[in-house]
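Dear support,

I submitted the protein below through the web form. The confirmation email said the job was done, but the results page showed an empty box. After a refresh the structure appeared. I'm attaching both so you can tell me whether what I see now is the final result or a partial one.
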Amino acid sequence: MPKIVAKTEDWINLGYRTFAEQGASGIIVEKMAKELKVNKSSFYWHFKTKDGFIKQLILVWIKNETERIINLSSSKKSGAQKLKTLFALVYKQDPFFDFIFHLKRYARKEKKIQLIIDDIDNKRIKYTYDLLLEMGYSKQEAKIKSTILYKHFLGYHELMRNKTQKDDYLKVIKKEINQFIKF
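What the results page shows now:
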């Protein structure tokens, strides 16, 4: 027998996990309602449309994977400490990391979503750029290095898909990054 209530948070948590695993094609209201043991009308009580729901998932992704990480690393005193904290947060293997890869695929059809992704990419690169300036790099060096670092981050996660991250992953990453950023 279906349970009476599914909270907005229940839908968001399931939707976020589902999107990270399967992309937009996995967001099937009937299947999600069955998993939550509710009627699909519960979904429409909380969200007007599937597209609106996906937009909510994107906002959660922005909050968790950009704003939270920037806030946590910003709390450190020096640029080098901020960068080390940033690495520890962003290079850690995350079961939901594929969210961004599915989001980029979804953006091929939804051009407004591509604008959001571009904005987030730029915000992340700008944050790293500012850290590198704080560490003493010139504007030109910081611009190039922050872009390369972001590409390294995306490439690292692509290479680590379906692999187990080793315990010394931060040591390995630091060694790689020390080839072009000394900290």
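Response: this is the final, complete result; the empty box was a page-load delay. The chain has one domain: 8-177.
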